[in-house]
Amino acid sequence: MANTFYNEILTEHNMHPIHKHPMEGANFVLQGVNPTCGDDITLSLKVENDVIVDGAYEGDGCAISQASADMMLDLIIGKSKDEALRLSEIFLRMIKGKITDEEKEELEEAGILEDISHMPARVKCAVLGWHTMDEMFKKKA
Amino acid sequence: MTEEDKRIRADFPIFENDNTIYIDTAATSQKPLSVLDAVRDYYENANANPLRGLYDLSMRATECYETARSTVAEFVNAPAAENIVFTRNASESLNLVAYSYGMNSLKEGDEVLVSIMEHHSNLLPWQLVCRATGAVLKFVECDKEGHLTPEMVEAAVNDRTKLLAVTYVSNVFGCRNDIKSFAEIIHNKGGIIVCDGAQALPHIPVDVQELNVDFLAFSGHKMLAPMGIGGLYGRQSLLEEMPPFMYGGEMIEIVTRESATYAEVPHKFEAGTVNAGGAVGLKAAIEYMNGIGFETIERRENALSKLCMELMAEDEHIHVIGDKDYVNHHGIVTFTLDDVHPHDIAAILNDENIAIRAGHHCAQPLLKYLGTNSTARASFGFYNTEDEVRQLVAAVRRIRGKMGY
Ligand SMILES: Cc1ncc(COP(=O)(O)O)c(C=O)c1O
Questions:
Q1: What's the CA gap between A61 and A39, in Å, rounded?
Q2: Which of B353, B347, B372 lies closest to B361, judged by CA?
Q3: Which residue segment(s) compose the domain that B24 sits in?
């Protein structure tokens, strides 16, 4: 079985993440951990008037968990909280293997993780960043 | 492939039916045809509910089951068949000791000493017993290469130490512990030793009398037998005193409305209908291993560990965990690869049809102690070949490139 997700997009986000750095002035910070794999992400977002104006993450884990978080931030920075939550709902549904082509388009690069749905052991890695964002918004809401 | 490789591999139908390069034997072994045939033969020719029927067929089933017990007893050199309790696996065996012995014998102020390299199966039950009884759980640490010496154990025990839980062969380092010396140390303090033999029985001869252990747990599925059968060796005097672990059918002598007197050891620990088919499979697995012989098993596994470690040493980015000496690996080579998470290693190897384990190997306290939270583990059985080792290491060496490094 050949993976389609260890491609250039994924390895690039893993090796040269754009959003992996400490961040000042975040008003939403939450750590997400996968106890079984040890994947560990701390997500920081700066939200003004319900718009995500900046975001970053720190942590370590497999390429899928790290790249997925990086792609997520690419997608949601500049979007409203509600829009980010809508996209994460699509992403989580994609991982369960249930989205339309149009929805996948909306996820931009994150759409490359679609095939993770065939690897149950890796699903938790792919969704870590997204779940963490969901949690942080739902907690503070 | 050598003639010997071919001969051995021909005994394992899965190698005919599936082309996975299977290097995850420490998780579970593959099964030879003789084991599969024995299970089938039992169900086709001798199946009835053992130990209860009053007719010939049930007596035959009982005989198959009890003969298997004798075979296991001989295999670990137990004094008698009655020293062997059949369970589902090593985890159940260790839980049996924890619930039946630990809960009833330990009390506040006692100490339980567990080695840092234990599988969760030989740690979590002791955490539970200590919480319930007020005993204190203590750890004895090995060095970073997995060496746990008698001196280290000696320094960690005291007059309050009532129980030492330690593995014979580590599922992470692959190293073999000096159980005989550990047993002497804890016995001198008046305590007992609970030994996890899950990774030992498949690889080395185990003699419970020579080791002088009080309990030894193991899993059939790691030593060529079917899943769902395992065992516990227990010292007779301890087993006699222990209450049953589970309650139900076929473990009693007389039941009244209020109480029951229990069956003799070992049946008092085997409530409900037993896994006779599994026990028969375990007997066949032991016979198969005896047929191959530990000399051959060890020679082959050592050669695989040696080659694997030599080839991995050629790459500065691969780091093998554990002893530098391949003889102290028992087919288990745990490693890390710079910049690549072990889960990615396993996933990328899977693209090349190579099956290895990655993660914490159910030994999170150990990995934390080693300063990592995940590693990759290649684990060989005597049925693996040197060619498979070469393919594995070559594939591992390509991974960094695939990840863009
Ligand atoms: C050292 C050790 N102990 C115990 C176990 C638990 O075995 P089982 O899952 O068969 O109960 C394992 C298996 O992973 C092991 O490697």
A1: 4
A2: B372
A3: 3-30+293-402
Q: What is the pLDDT of residues A11-66, one digit of tens each?
A: 999 999 999 999 999 999 999 988 777 788 999 999 999 999 999 999 988 999 99
Report the gap between the CA of A14 and the closest CA in chain B (Å): 8
What are the pLDDT digits (tens) for B349-383? 999 999 999 988 888 889 889 888 789 999 999 99
pLDDT of B374 reads 86
| Cα-to-centroid distance, B234 and ligand 1 (Å) | 18
Q: How far is the CA of B24 from the centre of ligand 1 (A)?
A: 13
Residues B275 and B361 in one domain: no
Domain range for A33: 2-139
Nearest-CB residue to B343 (from A14, A15, A37): A37
- Between the CA atoms of B344, B349, B352 and B354, what dihedral angle is there, to the nearest 10 degrees? -150
> B341 vs A61: CB contact, 8 Å cut-off?
yes
In ligand 1, the atom with minimum distance to the C-alpha of B362 is 14
Residue ranges around ligand 1 (CB below 6 Å): B 26, 89-91, 119, 121-122, 167, 171, 196, 198-199, 219, 362
Tell the burial category of B304 from Cβ atoms under 10 Å away from its Cβ (0-12, 13-18, 19+): buried
* CATH number of the domain bearing residue A13: 3.90.1010.10
ipTM of the assembly?
0.83
Task: Supply the CATH number for residue B336's domain.
Answer: 3.90.1150.10
Q: What's the CATH code of the domain at B164?
A: 3.40.640.10
For chain B positions 357-386, those within 8 Å of chain A (CB to CB) are 359-360, 373-374
Parts of chain B with a pLDDT under 50: none
Tokens of B25: 């034997």
